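Bug #77: duplicate submission created two jobs. Keeping one. Sequence:
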Amino acid sequence: MNAISADELIELGERAMMTPDVPERLRDFCTNTEGGFEGDKVWSPDNSSFSPYYFFLYLVAQRVQPKLWVECGLELGRATAFVAHAAPECRCIGIDIGGKICATWLEFLNELSGVAIRRCDSIDWALTNRHERIDLLHLDSEHSYDQCLREFCYFRPLMAPGGLIFMDDISSAGPLKVWSQIGLPKIVFRKLHGPNGWGTCCIPKE
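Kept job's structure:
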């Protein structure tokens, strides 16, 4: 994975607020509401619905070209789709015990080279894949303090030097408490996810 500095991450965070160019097919899926998730869009042409952190992930993956992306808490699979498009050579693993991913999104993800969806507990995956070295990790599963802490503790040893851990909803009680206890260089992006909060932890380089 290519190295990236804190200043570069902050710059990409600002660029993400300007809806950067992404492949047309991916943008089309950003507005998909199949499955009854009306309003749960990444982007709409009038910017009435806009989740900039997906564009941020796209820009970061495009810049660093990770070898392995792991997402805990797949939901619709949008973050994984953005990373897979930005870094075609990356292995992208989405982990979820259930999730609400609709058939159209599932078909879309399965068409992407290097994407694998794992229906299992995230801790079980970490325990059985200790040999892996993750460049980009997205923690966005169940938001209790215990679950957030366990995921961070089990996945931290799997991180590659210079890797990045993205934490969603760090304004919520559970993620916020874990976030405050992390003794790593951290960046809070206050605009990428509105009042829900969004943070990035930087793994030191060896």
